């Protein structure tokens, strides 16, 4: 029996996934969480074989949670289930060393098969997405530039970003100027759009 932890914040989707997985005689959902920051503690208590994690979770995003889960419970394999079919997001998932990456609009049988493959120590990644990811470009932004852009994308202005990151307002503006230049964007809004579409911003 393959023991599964499911992390999904939408109640109806989570309920449907649990029902779907429990139809399979060899799969058993032993825990459900709706927040990313609940994943590691729950997994340490119930010791699942596979964690199915949505990327866009409150509290902590799914990829960060997956990386932390790998550190604390390496025997639990992770399968990312998402509606984000962007190559850049898949590249981030692969760098977080997840075992599988499946889109939410995949046929139900594909999910059960992906769980079995991941539990067996294999990779389960949407093939079309994998091809697109390997053909894509790497994120040209530094970690600090990414942080600044993420806060800007959340609506923070330069003075607030400066306060949050313990920088001067001038330094934040310099970072944003560098980001716009690196992404060949027209302005900050365009830079945010480009980074999101590339999967560099969640």
TrEMBL record:
Provenance organism: Streptomyces coeruleofuscus
Record has DNA-binding as a keyword: yes
Chain positions with 4-aspartylphosphate modification: 54
Occurrences of domain Response regulatory (ranges): 3-119
Identification of the protein by name: Response regulator transcription factor
Keywords from the named record: DNA-binding, Phosphoprotein
PROSITE patterns xref list: HTH_LUXR_1, HTH_LUXR_2, RESPONSE_REGULATORY
Domain HTH luxR-type: 134-199
Gene3D superfamilies membership: 3.40.50.2300
């Amino acid at each position: 029996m393959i023991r599964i932890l499911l992390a999904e914040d939408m109640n109806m989707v989570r309920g449907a996934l649990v029902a779907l997985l429990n139809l399979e005689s060899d799969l058993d959902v032993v825990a459900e969480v709706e927040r990313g920051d609940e994943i590691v503690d729950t997994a340490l208590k119930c010791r699942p074989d596979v964690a199915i994690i949505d990327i866009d979770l409150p509290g902590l995003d799914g990829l960060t949670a997956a990386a932390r889960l790998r550190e604390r419970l390496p025997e639990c394999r992770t399968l990312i289930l998402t509606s984000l079919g962007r190559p850049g997001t898949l590249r981030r998932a692969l760098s977080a060393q997840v075992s599988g990456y499946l889109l939410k609009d995949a046929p139900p049988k594909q999910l059960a098969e992906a769980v079995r493959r991941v539990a067996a120590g294999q990779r389960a990644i949407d093939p079309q997405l994998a091809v697109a990811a390997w053909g894509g470009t790497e994120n040209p932004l530094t970690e600090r530039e990414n942080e600044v852009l993420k806060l800007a994308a959340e609506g923070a202005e330069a003075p607030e970003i400066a306060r949050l990151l313990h920088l001067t307002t001038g330094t934040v503006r310099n970072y944003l100027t560098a980001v716009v230049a690196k992404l060949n964007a027209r302005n900050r809004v365009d830079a945010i759009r480009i980074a999101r579409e590339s999967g560099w911003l969640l």
